[in-house]
Amino acid sequence: MLIGSFIISLTPTKYQIYTRLVVSLILFFSMIRISRKEFDNIIEQINEVLDTGAFITAVVTFMIFAINIALTFSSYTLFKQTTVNNNIISMLYSKHPYIIGLIVILLLPFVEEILFKAQIFKNTKFLDNHKVIKTIIIALLFACSHCITEIVTLNYKVIISMINYILFYSITNTIYIRSNYNIMKPIAIHMLLNALSLIISL
After folding, report:
1. C-alpha pair distances (Å), 94 with each of 13, 25, 91, 98, 201
2. Is residue 150 within 8 Å of residue 84, measured between CB atoms?
3. How far does the chain reach from its first CA to its final CA, in angstroms?
4. pTM exceeding 0.90
5. pLDDT score, position 128
6. How many Cα atoms within 13 Å fall on the side-chain side of residue 102?
7. Contact 134, 124 (CB under 8 A)
8. How far apart are CA 148 and CA 4, in angstroms?
9. What b-and-e string marks burial along 82-93, b requiring 16 or more CB atoms within 10 Å of the CB?
10. Which of 69, 108, 137, 176 has the highest count of CB atoms within 10 angstroms of its CB?
C-alpha cells in the first residue's frame, strides 16, 4: 500500500486517477490471493449476508453512517476541515465518478477488510486472549492509515476523524468475530458505507 501511494505521488496529475485504479486492482487481486482461504465457502458467506444477515448489515451500516455524519459534521464545525484523504476522494469523484466509484465501493473495501481483519487481526494470535485490546490496537492502526498526512504533520485537528475510523473498525471487527469470521459481512458494510458517503459527497 505504501509503495502504491509512493507511485501515485510520482505520477503526473492527469494520469493519477489511472495509476490509482491500477494500484487498487493489483492490491485487490493480491489480497484475494494471499487470503484465498477466507473465501473457501464464499457462496455460503454471501448467502448469509443476503439472507439472515441482511437486516443486521443494513442496520449496522446506517448506524455507522449516522455516527460518521455526526462526527464529520463535528470535525468540520470545530476545525473547518476534513482529512486530506477525504478531500482527495471527493475531488477525484467529481471528475472521475465511475473510476472512483469502482475503487472506493468495490476494490478498497476488500483490500482494507482483508488486510486489517483476515491478515492482521487473525494472524496476531499472541493477543488472542485479549481480543478487545487487539481490536483497539488494530483500529488505531486502521485510523492512522486513513489520516497519515495529518499524523505526519502533527495536526491535532484529526482527532475526531481518528475516532470515526476507530469506531468503524471496532464495530465491523466485532461483527466479523461474532459471524465466525465471515469476511463478507464487514466487506458488505464497508461497501455500503462507502457508497453512501460518495452519494453524500455529491
Report:
1. 15, 21, 5, 10, 9
2. yes
3. 27
4. yes
5. 80
6. 12
7. yes
8. 14
9. bbbbbeebbebb
10. 176
CB 100 within 8 A of CB 16: no
Report the alpha-carbon distance of residue 39 to residue 142 in Å, rounded.
22
Instruction: Give the Cα separation of 134 and 125 in Å (integer).
Output: 10
62 is written with which cell numbers? 446506517
- pLDDT lower than 70: segments of the chain: 202
What are 4's three cell numbers? 502504491
CB neighbourhood size of 141 (10 A): 15
Q: With b meaning 16 or more CB within 10 Å and e meaning fewer, what string describes 104-121? A: bbebbbbbbbbbbbbeeb
